[in-house]
Amino acid sequence: MNTLVPRLMSLAVASALALASVSIAHAATAATVNAARAENAFLSQSEAAARSARVSNVDYKLDFTLTGKETFSGTTTLAFDLKDTASPLTVDLDKATIKSLSVNGKSVTPQYNGWFITLAAKDLAKGRNTVVVAYERKHSTNGEGLHRMVDPVDGRVYTYSHFEPAAAHQMFAVFDQPDLKATYTVTTTAPADWTVVSTTRETRVDTVGDAKRWTFKQTKKLSPYNFSMHAGPYKVWEDDSGKYPMRLMARQSVASQVKPEEWFRYTKAGLAFFDDYFGIPYQFEKYDQLLVPDFLYGAMENAGAITFAEGGFLFKADMTAEQRARLAGVIMHEMAHQWFGDLVTMQWWNGLWLNESFASFMGTLATAEATEFKDAWRAFYSQGKQAAYAQDQRVTTHPIEVPVPSTENAFDNIDAITYSKGASTLMQLRHLLGADVFRKGVHNYLVKYQYKNAKLDDFIGALGQAAGRDLSGWTKEWLYQAGVNTIAANFSCANGKVTSFAIEQTAPSKALPTLREQRVQIATFRLDGKEVKLDRTVPVIYKGAKTSVPAMAGAACPDLVYPNYGDWGFVKVQLDQRSFDTARAHLAKVDDPLLRAMLWQALWDGVRDAKLPLNDFIATALNNAPQEKDYTLLGDIAGKIDAAKRYLDNIDPNGAYTQAATRQLEDMAWTSVEANSADANFQRRWMSTYLSVASSRPALDRLAALLDGKQKVQGLTVDQDLRWAIINRLNRYDYPGAAALIAAEQARDKSDTGQAAALGATVVRPDPAVKAEWLGKIQDLQTKLQFSRVRTAMGNMYPAGQGALSEQTAAQRLSGLAAIDKAAGPVFMRAYGASMIPVGCTPASVKRLQAAADANKDLTAGTRRNLLDTLQEDQRCVAIKQAMTAK
Q1: 24 vs 31, 33, 813, CA distance in Å?
Q2: Which of 304, 403, 625, 628 is 20 to 30 A removed from 70 (C-alpha atoms)?
Q3: What is the dihedral of CA 854, 857, 862, 863, to 10 degrees?
Q4: 3-class secondary structure for 309-370?
């Protein structure tokens, strides 16, 4: 599609015009078609099932002509077997101009509504059919379909495809559903200096006038969303040192920022790991990876040609350890998909969670076992898993496995539950079945369903068969029921020894009453001078409301109990009071970094549940964070400090406590920046923390001095990325002269990322005129701006601390939410709903959001979910404020 789905009125007019061109002879057929398939941009599950019941053995021959201009042309030759000719058949093609259409060698007048072509039953044949569609279409500019970007640095044009969840029909005529796998044979004519990349390698490249024509060999069977084609004057690096040839590509203007040796090192290690783990060799012969601009997500697992968002993996300084770990993790995640998702694919979009959960689980396992980042599971606990816990405690939580009525809803539930809770349940299942049994079940599943589609029951059945166990009860509890349970240790002591011990499990609410079975590890600790020493660990399978643990009897009465030691289970832990007090007082004395992370999380849970005053947490952070010597855990703590600062700014940005606490946090972070001059990783992490808390005038003065070189810190390089981060911060707080810094820096940095950073620094300014201008641009659905720029503007419009400015348009944004939701598409609304629904951290703001939720029950599922989540977070902020003032 284009940047946005047009307004419904426009679509209705377009449909009417298209149908008006249909001959009288086709009128009755059109009525039948309308009954069979809805006249809209999306494909329902029932419509997809009806089509796949009739269609099989699909093959595509795709011929594209790319010029670098705003439009491209193509010809799709679609061959397939058809079970019957009892009714018409639809082929998906989005907003194209059809030049010609033939069905089984006969030229026909297209019956086309802008979303799909309807093939009349009389033109079809039982058995083999061939359909040829020649068309022209605009490139997409919103990151879907065949996206086009003009590099502002050198004017070069780059294109790449992105089809998930169902956007292949924005590039060619196709049965755009995962269970109609097909082969693809591609030819592409492109400018002579371009490289064309697809699922397979090219077999020949011919010169055709001023252009070149690339011919690729036929692919193996793939779902449409796993196929891809990318083209542009990409810089190409090659490495043939491994079992499979590897290539890496990026825009010419950013090539100096790429470290290909690191990409190839992790890629080579991952391919060797997965070949061994799955027991099935990598199936797609070559392994290409492309860094692409304006990308909607982190990366995409196109078979044999994986795309990565430039913004997540390009840096103007050497990568930190955290950035390298993220690179390794995402490479492994997308690589796992080559087997689980590409080789074996879900039948419909309700199975997308299993693809993502499995890739998250396997990506973390591969990172921990095949790279230097042995603490990958701790990073997963602190990042993905905590996001899943938070998501699962929202009013909009949902089961891992949920129905998906149509392609419009395919990404409604793509969130931390889909990725990280799902991965956590797989980790739990691995603990329950044993690592070897789990691996055997996965291998058997991949062998049985390779090049096919499968359902959840197929995967669980393969694991259950390998284990010799019925997993239907586990599946019902974990995959079809929402919510995160809480466990607590309930124990008694006498004469310094444990006399009774039990795990007590509670459900989150009456609406989510499920109590689950799970295997965890209980650990007890005792204080010994300056150390918190591990005394005993006991694995236990608990279920129901209470599970006795007789193995704990006779143990030394603990100062601290943690009932999910080692992070085996997906469960929220409520510390008993003695353990909670020990955690607060002795965090730095806990040797095990994973346990420290869990105790930090317990304290932060206390803040978010309004049981621990935010000021108490900040005091704990001030006392303990500077002592943290584990790099991964420090990143987790830094994230919590950043979140604490956001709460302060939302609660009362100008209040006396906020001002005082901010100065303390600034001093702590800056002292740590200076103290870590010998370790670039720690220093840059602390510098990032300083940027996230700096808001007082002295702190902003220091940032300005760093920017203009008047202040220097040993070991700290003020690189281009840091310069833009400082400029954004100075503009956010309207530092004198900050606005002029934007244009000056743009003159220094003419890159695409520089333009985006300049936009962010402009929009973040606390200037009512700037906010009004950019709100108008964001809400203009006909804007010519690249959607990536619109997203940047959204993300910088109303940061914490600018509540008064947000209030000026809050009512207007809420009153207009239904209209913009109706007019815009899912891609736009996922960004808009997450950034533009107003919060205020006041009872009045909560009341206003509640009224909006009550009045807008017909919003699309994704937008309504964003509204309800925003309401709940505003309620949480008010409760945190009350807990602070009640102390």
Answers
A1: 12, 15, 46
A2: 304
A3: -60
A4: EHHHHCCCCCCCHHHHHHHHHHHHHHHHHHHECCCEEECCHHHHHHHHHHHHHHHHHHHHHH
Nearest to residue 57, comparing CAs of 75, 88, 79? 79
pLDDT for the residue 14: 33
143-164 per-position pLDDT tens digit: 999 999 999 999 999 999 999 9
Instruction: Find out whether 752 and 151 touch, Cβ atoms under 8 Å.
Output: yes
The string of pLDDT tens digits covering residues 614-652 is 999 999 999 999 999 999 999 999 999 999 999 999 999
Instruction: Calculate mean pLDDT across residues 432-444.
Output: 96
**Residue located via tokens 């009350």:** 882
Report which of residues 528 and 875 the model is more confident about.
Answer: 875
Alpha-carbon separation of residue 126 from 85, 521, 673 (angstroms): 6, 60, 73
C-alpha distance from residue 78 to each of 61, 86, 274, 328, 509 (Å):
7, 20, 34, 38, 52
**Nearest alpha carbon to residue 651 among 703, 592, 595, 607:** 607
Other residues' Cβ atoms within 10 Å of the Cβ of residue 708: 10
Q: What is the pTM of this model?
A: 0.91
More confident residue, 24 or 338: 338
CA distance 293 to 307: 10
Residues 653-686 as b/e (b if ≥16 CB within 10 A, e otherwise) read beeeebeebbeebbbbbbebbeebeeebbbbbbb
pLDDT tens, 341-392?
A: 999 999 999 999 999 999 999 999 999 999 999 999 999 999 999 999 999 9
Three-point CA angle 218, 222, 224, nearest 5°:
105
Full strand arrangement of the beta sheet holding 157-162: 145-150, 157-162, 229-232, 195-198
Residue 314 near residue 756, CB atoms below 8 Å: no
E-strand spans in 43-181? 55-65, 71-82, 89-92, 97-103, 106-107, 116-119, 127-138, 145-150, 157-162
State percent of the chain over pLDDT 70: 96
Cβ contacts of 812-821, under 8 Å, gap ≥ 24:
813/775, 813/837, 813/838, 814/838, 814/848, 814/849, 814/852, 816/779, 817/852, 817/856, 817/859, 817/863, 817/867, 818/856, 818/858, 818/859, 820/779, 820/781, 821/859, 821/860, 821/863
Structure tokens at 292: 């692409």
Which residue among the candidates 164, 310, 322, 334 is catalytic per the annotation? 334
- What average pLDDT does the segment 285-310 reach? 96
Closest CA to 371 of 249, 243, 263, 250: 263
Query: What pLDDT, on a 0 to 100 scale, did the predictor assign at position 316?
Result: 87
Tell me the CA distances in angstroms from 717 to 684, 687, 711, one per residue in order: 9, 11, 12
Residues 6+ apart with CB under 8 A from 591: 531, 532
Diameter of the chain measured on Cα atoms: 94
pLDDT in tens, 111-143: 999 999 999 999 999 999 999 999 999 999 999
Q: Express each pLDDT in 459-501 by its tens digit.
A: 999 999 999 999 999 999 999 999 999 999 999 999 999 999 9
Q: Find the angle CA(250)-CA(253)-CA(257) to the nearest 5 degrees.
A: 65
**Residues in a beta bridge with 291:** 308
**Structure letter (DSSP) for residue 119:** E
Instruction: Return the closest-CA partner of residue 174 out of 237, 117, 107.
Output: 117
Task: Tell me the DSSP string of 258-310.
Answer: --HHHHHHHHHHHHHHHHHHHSS--SSS-EEEEEETT-SSSEE--TTEEEEEH
| Residue 886 predicted with pLDDT over 80 | no
Residue 284 has pLDDT above 80, yes or no: yes
Catalytic, 334? Answer yes
**What value, to the nearest 5°, has the Cα angle with vertex 399 and ends 393 and 404?**
130
Q: What secondary structure does DSSP assign to 182-245, as a single string?
A: EEEEEEEEEETT-EEEESS-EEEEEEETTEEEEEEPPP--B-GGG--EEEES-EEEEE-SSSS-
Six token digits for residue 498: 């444990």
